[in-house]
Write a sequence for this structure.
């Protein structure tokens, strides 16, 4: 397509393109549109496909000009961006004298014999010349795993194999049945409870304040103070008490208000730990207790090493950002904010938060999320610039290694992952981008001056 393009550079991340599509191109497209409609148009007084173009223009001209206007802008802008070798992000802002906003269904006046002239304001990936990225002074923390750390892991593994058994130590009642000893912190109580809000006229029942639950006393899964009221009760005993909901409770209408609950312990249980020996270790897939401890230490060492390397890389990125200040495209920041919100919302949902709680949490943390997103976008642009300058790329065998590792972690056949990325090229680009960023960070760590703490 014949075009005339002028480019202005208001900033490092914005380009303003003035595009002129010659009148002969406009006229050709309108005529083509008229002829396409003519072939299928059914108008009174004419055989199908035989109405004169003048009549087609009378009936369909506005619709055709509307389509030509928008199609020409889309097509010519793509060509102008390609011609100017621009990497745009987000949606462009289009301004044209022919576009009369609010004038009606077809709010423009494109005509044969007129040039189509418009301006498109677009955000672009900035050209970043990164300074001072080699020889950065960094501190690597010492990886230290103690015997106490290993014992905590072993205790956790042992705890995972524990059983819940009815507590002993109660009294025998007149009916010959034994009660449990009084409940204490750490016990598991099968409870039935019902409750309502305290009002001037009595207790107002409320949905969600009634049911059966296995409660670990001291876990703080109920509102503050609730579990304290259960301490001292034995199985079969009932207690009625009043407590206040927290001032920051997620349901605003009951924040800070008083409620009354009636709780009955149906059964009281305690955790019975298994004997920690070779037999238990073998039942969990280890060769022996010594093997379980050895693997626990290896796991902790890997975990702490990864944590230390993560902190080292975070420090490196922070220093790069401090050394290289530049504008970042709003479209990229907005996209990253959306990604962070989605990721955080999923985490909150897994922790039991409902939609209302998630929405309130996002609103409260939105400004902080925007700051994080801006830093992450700036870091990505810096690393991409370094990768380009240092000719850092991701080889096919590195992609295959990553696919194999992912397949192992996900417990799927690696061929399924290959097929997935073949069908979703955008996802594969994301994978390659992540691997290239990681490889660039490794390059920068190798070039840094690192001391141990």
């Amino acid at each position: 397509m014949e075009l005339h393009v002028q480019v202005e550079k208001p900033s490092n991340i914005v380009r303003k393109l003035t595009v002129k599509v010659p009148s002969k191109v406009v006229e050709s497209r309108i005529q083509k549109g008229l002829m396409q409609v003519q072939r299928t148009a059914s108008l009174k007084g004419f055989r199908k496909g035989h109405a004169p173009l003048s009549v087609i223009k009378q009936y369909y001209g506005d619709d055709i000009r509307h389509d030509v206007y928008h199609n020409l802008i889309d097509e010519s802008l793509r060509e102008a961006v390609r011609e100017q070798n621009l990497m745009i992000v987000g949606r462009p802002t289009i301004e044209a004298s022919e576009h009369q906003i609010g004038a009606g269904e077809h709010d423009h006046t494109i005509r044969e014999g007129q040039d189509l002239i418009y301006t498109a304001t677009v955000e672009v990936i900035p050209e970043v010349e990164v300074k001072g990225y080699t020889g950065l002074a960094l501190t690597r923390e010492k990886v230290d795993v103690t015997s106490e750390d290993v014992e905590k892991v072993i205790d956790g593994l042992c705890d995972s194999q524990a059983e819940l058994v009815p507590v002993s130590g109660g009294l025998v009642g007149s009916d010959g049945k034994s009660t449990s000893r009084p409940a204490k912190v750490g016990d598991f109580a099968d409870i039935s409870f019902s409750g309502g809000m305290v009002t001037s006229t009595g207790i107002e029942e409320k949905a969600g304040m009634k049911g059966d639950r296995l409660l670990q006393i001291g876990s703080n899964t109920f509102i503050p103070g609730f579990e304290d009221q259960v301490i001292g009760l034995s199985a079969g005993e009932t207690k009625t008490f009043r407590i206040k909901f927290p001032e920051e409770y997620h349901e605003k209408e009951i924040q800070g208000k008083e409620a009354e609950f009636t709780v009955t312990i149906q059964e009281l249980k305690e955790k019975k730990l298994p004997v920690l020996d070779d037999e238990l270790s073998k039942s969990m897939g280890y060769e022996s207790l010594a093997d379980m401890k050895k693997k626990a230490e290896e796991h902790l060492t890997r975990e702490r090493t990864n944590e230390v390397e993560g902190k080292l890389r975070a420090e490196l990125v922070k220093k790069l950002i401090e050394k290289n200040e530049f504008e970042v495209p709003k479209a990229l920041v907005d996209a990253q904010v959306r990604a962070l919100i989605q990721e955080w919302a999923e985490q909150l949902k897994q922790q039991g938060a409902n939609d209302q709680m998630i929405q309130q949490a996002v609103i409260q943390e939105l400004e902080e999320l925007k700051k994080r997103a801006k830093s992450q976008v700036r870091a990505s642009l810096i690393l991409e610039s370094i990768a380009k300058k240092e000719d850092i790329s991701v080889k096919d065998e590195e992609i295959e290694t990553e696919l194999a590792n992912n397949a192992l972690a996900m417990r799927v056949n690696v061929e399924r992952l290959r097929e997935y990325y073949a069908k979703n090229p955008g996802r594969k680009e994301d994978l390659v981008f992540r691997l290239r960023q990681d490889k660039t960070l490794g390059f920068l760590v190798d070039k840094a001056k690192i001391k141990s703490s």
